[in-house]
Amino acid sequence: MSSRLFIRELSANDYTRSGWDLAICVSLFFQGVLCAQFAHYMTLSKRDSIWLKLFVTGLAVLSVARCCQCLAIMWMQNVTLFPSVEAASTLWLRHWVPKSNIMLEATGALYVQIFFSRRLWASAISRNAYIVTICLIFFALGLVTAVVGTVCLFVNRITWTAGLISLHLGLVLCGDSLLTASTVFYLLRHYNASILSRSPFAIKMKLLVRLTIQSAAPAAICTFINLVADMRLFLDEIEDPRALMAAFILIIALPQLYAWSAMWTLNSREDIWVAVDNRTYTVNLATSAVLADLRSVRGPHVGEVPFQGTQNNFAPSRENEKLLSV
């Protein structure tokens, strides 16, 4: 019986309905992870600015809205339309709730992308306006293509929708890659410029590089696979049910991966400070005063340190603060 169950050929309707069910399960799983991250942030946010707290609040609202949309789709597919397999399988073409999926994904992704862009600009890591502007242009064009793709979906231009979603994901992936690469580049440049290669500042730079890559990787991989699936749908004119199932799952999970990335970055600030404070390192007497000052100085918000950097030295400066946010 079990062998017959796994080797039987599934119909296109089976792939469509199972794709939504799997996507909703993935969404609920990530929502549980996000709830734990939000709860952890509440214990660490006492010294954060009001704007950062409002950002996290907005992120929580967007993630809850995504979760409510998934529950509504599951109810309609498995309860309201349960007697009609055909109607349940074509729900994403007929009802406005699943049709709004693209806009929810684009809005959630843009919200986090603006946060990371501001992080790159407002910190002391980089003041290169060209890089931040190019990233924002990619993200804005991605939002425009998502809006046009949603309009095409509402007027039943399905093939055009697949092509526009592919363009949207490609623009988002380019912007994310440029943003992540720029952040890593400037972190490494500050790390290599410091002669105190085992100082707390250098250790913190290394940890920030690792955190930046690890937090950006899941969303980038998900975006790339989603791009491949949507390109397959566009080229095959929505005739590949497996690619359609993969697109459903990935586009549901993508905004929550962005939210998870932002919350991981925020919640890792105190862990980085603990790792820096507990790290053993050796220095000579000429630099011991600088290192002692670095260990004692904390910025006005958790995870921030004021410093004034030159090519060969990094020393704290309270008169002219530049905040290096995690």
UniProtKB/TrEMBL annotation:
Transmembrane region(s): 20-39, 51-76, 96-116, 128-156, 162-188, 208-229, 241-260
Q: Which UniProt keywords apply?
A: Membrane, Transmembrane, Transmembrane helix
Q: State if Membrane is listed as a keyword.
A: yes
- All copies of the DUF6534 domain together span 174-270
In which domain of life is the source organism classified?
Eukaryota
Q: Does the keyword Iron-sulfur apply?
A: no
Name-wise, this protein is DUF6534 domain-containing protein
